[in-house]
Amino acid sequence: MKAYPDPATGGDPWTIGYGSTGPEIVPGLEITEEQADAYLRADIETAEKCINQCVTGNLTQDQFDALCSFVFNLGCGNLRKSTLLKKINEGDDIGASEEFKRWDKANGKVMAGLTRRRTAEMELFLT
């Protein structure tokens, strides 16, 4: 698997495997499927820790999984400052689910792939 540029910027952040980013991901980097799996496991662990630190109430497994996808893609900082998290912590599941749709832009531009991803996360969150 080869590193590829961010679709919105055509460059940084460079991505590899199943969507991993970081300072070590640079143009020309190639990894094996096993390395991609390891990156993914580490990224999921990071997302889980973030959710466990930020969410004050109980989540269903589907809600937790939807948030893992969100944090994996957007990072913990974006969850921490989001209205999505505020509504989750207020117990407003319907309001929270609507917030996913607001995160469909990259570099200020609506991206079809992000729209699909946020819709899937919203639907999973409501399951």
Walkthrough of the structure:
With 127 residues, the protein is mainly alpha-helical. It has a single domain, classed as Orthogonal Bundle (Lysozyme). The chain is 55% helix and 6% strand. Strand 3 and strand 4 form a beta hairpin. Helix 1 packs across helix 2, helix 2 packs antiparallel against helix 6 and helix 5 runs antiparallel to helix 6. It is globular, with a radius of gyration of 15 Å. The mean pLDDT is 96.
Largest sheet: 2 strands, antiparallel
Report Rg.
15 Å
- Strand order of the main beta sheet, please? 1-2
Series of secondary-structure elements, N-terminal to C-terminal: EEHHHHHEEH
Q: Share of helix among residues?
A: 55-70%
How many structurally independent domains? 1
CATH fold field value: Lysozyme
Walk me through the topology:
Layout: E1 15-16, E2 20-21, H1 33-54, H2 61-74, H3 76-80, H4 83-89, H5 93-99, E3 105-106, E4 109-110, H6 112-126
Helix pairs in contact: 1-2, 2-6, 4-5, 5-6
Give the tags.
127 residues; mainly alpha; Lysozyme; two-stranded antiparallel sheet; globular
Concise summary:
The protein has 127 residues and is mainly alpha-helical. The chain has helices at 33-54, 61-74, 76-80, 83-89, 93-99, 112-126; strands at residues 15-16, 20-21, 105-106, 109-110.
